[in-house]
Structure formats: C-alpha cells, structure tokens
Amino acid sequence: MTRVRPRLVFERWTDRVAGEVLEGSDIDVLQLDLSAPEEANWAALTSAHGYQVATRTDVAAFAGGAQWLAGQRLVERCEQLLAVCSAGAGYDVIDVDACTRAGIAVCNNSGPGAEAVAEHALGFMLDLAKRITVADRALRTGPIGDRLRLRGSQLLGKTLGVVGLGAIGGRLVELCAPFDMDVVVFDPYLDDITAQARGVRSVSLAELLERSDFVQVTCPLTKETEGLFGTEQFDAMKPTAFFITTARGPVHDEAALFEALVAGSIAGAGLDVFHEEPPRQDNPLLKLDNVVATPHTAGITAEAARDIAIATAEQWQTIFDGGVPPRLLNPEVWPHYCDRFEEILGVRPQAVAAGKGA
C-alpha cells in the first residue's frame, strides 16, 4: 500500500517558528481561517489527518466558533482525523472521550510554557501580598493620605497551597523556595515519593484550604475539577488568604468567589482565567479593589511562545513519523489508533505506547 502524505490543519501557531520547523517535513500544512465561510473550513478539516486545535479564546470572537473545537460533532465529521493537539497544557478544548472512542490520539503541550505561567502566578502572589496594584491605583487617583492604609504582607514563612502539582505547580514551588514557604499540595495523582522529592507535603483539599495563605490553582479543567471551588471551599479559607488561579475559569464558581471577596471571607484574588473569555467589562470581579486580573496571558511570553511552537511542531513530526507523541493524553487509544493510522496513511506505527501493543 502506498504511503499517503499526511495533512495537518492548524488555526494559528504561538510562534511562526513552528511553520519553519515543519517546512522540511513530509507533511502538508494548511491554516484554518475562522473568518472564512464554514464550507471552506469543513473542507479543510474533513481532509485532515491532524488538527492543532484552536483555543477557546481564538474562537470566541466568531459566531459558531465553538464548532472548531475538537468536540463530538467535529470528531464524527472528520473521519480521516488521527490526532488532535492543544496549544498549551490545557486540553479542555478537546473531547478526550469522543476522540478515544474514535481512535484519535489526544496530545497537549505541557511543559514548554510552565516557566511563564509559574512566574505569572508568583507575580500575582507578590502583587496581592504587597498590595502593589492597590497602591498604584491609589497613587493615580488622588491624594494618598495615610500610607499605612496600604500596608501589605510578606511571602516569607507563609504557607503555599498548590492544587495540581504538574509542570506549572512544580516550577512555582521551586520559584518560592527563597521565601522559605511551607508548601502543601492537593493532587490525587501525586505519590508520596514525588511529593518528598519536590519538598512538599500531600494533603486533602480541606486541610490545604484551612492552612494556606496562598491557594494557587494550576490543575487542568476536567470532569473532576469543574466546580472544584465554590462557596464551601472559599468559606474554608483564612480571611487573610489569597485565591490565585492560572487554570481554567470553570474550576471555580465566579459568583461564589465574588461573594467571598465582598464578605471578606478571603483577602483577595489573582485571576488569569474566567468563565467567559475575554471577560466582559461589567464582570463584577473586575470592579473589586482586592482583585488583580489578566486576560489569560500568564503563558504568553516571547520565550514561551517560541518554546511551545517548537515543541508543537516536533510533536507533529513524531506523530506522522509513526512515533509515540511525547505528551499523549490517552495512551489507551494506541491499538485502535495504530489500526486507523495504517488504514488511512498506509504505514503502521512501529512504536509502543505506555506498554500497549501496537
């Protein structure tokens, strides 16, 4: 059987270097234009073997844009599709179960952007504790008056609670080392050996909330984590504690967070993610002085964009060369995926994924 030249469709790269890396590959690369007629985009996708999935933020500006995420409808319609990848560590733009049932490999790009997001989270911690944004606003809007009313606190010796000790959470722990913080972690998938090696202590979510001065959420959005933080969780935090998230908006209840901030149940919040992105200007959380917010830009740095783009391109090269993607999220798909890969592209992957036979 003659090998078929694979086709990869992408909406945008985080950096054009991805296209440069793929130029020398035996892959047809086609860009999706979200502003183009639906028929043109569906024609591109139904012929695609790989899809670098658009982000939720990318599609938000277009009517019906959500159809370009890798949901059940797209999976059913794109019968040639072998693999889908998200741009960053988050993969909530992909219906993993639907892909697995269809024999489609699902990948993300965790790791390359971890430094950027972890530094952003640390920036939130310092800003909130030192009241930097609050002081800046006060300085710009009128007489300061008594400076003591802008008194902040320090990170030194405080307790950091990390929800989800992946690449981002792990790097944040390293960045906080000079502050001699006590670090507790809630992560059901964290084993004791890894926790000990990272210098953290694994605890229940309840204990983390009770003890932490900073609650930092870095977990992915999944069925397990959606709605993880609500009224009960915010009420369990210290009134002097700060809630910080660089995860995904639906992990926390925005209305419950607003009530907790207004009531003084917690001291403040640092938010890089919202339920609706970009958030509406009338979002109540943006009206509060004890909230510091950014429009899902934690991972957007020049260095991270380039690193993610290179990792993305190299992962696609691995996929179409018949190798196991380095960031494969559904290894159980491998036998079915290999059968489809051979049927569609005319060659069978030679690698074995996570102990599964090809």
From TrEMBL:
Note the superkingdom of the native organism: Bacteria
One Pfam family, short name: 2-Hacid_dh_C
Keywords recorded for this protein, A-Z: Amino-acid biosynthesis, NAD, Oxidoreductase
Stretches assigned to the D-isomer specific 2-hydroxyacid dehydrogenase NAD-binding domain = 122-298
Q: Which CDD domains match?
A: PGDH_4 (cd12173)
Q: Does the keyword Metal-binding apply?
A: no
Location of the D-isomer specific 2-hydroxyacid dehydrogenase catalytic domain: 72-330
Which family is this protein grouped under?
Belongs to the D-isomer specific 2-hydroxyacid dehydrogenase family.
Name the chain's protein: Hydroxyacid dehydrogenase
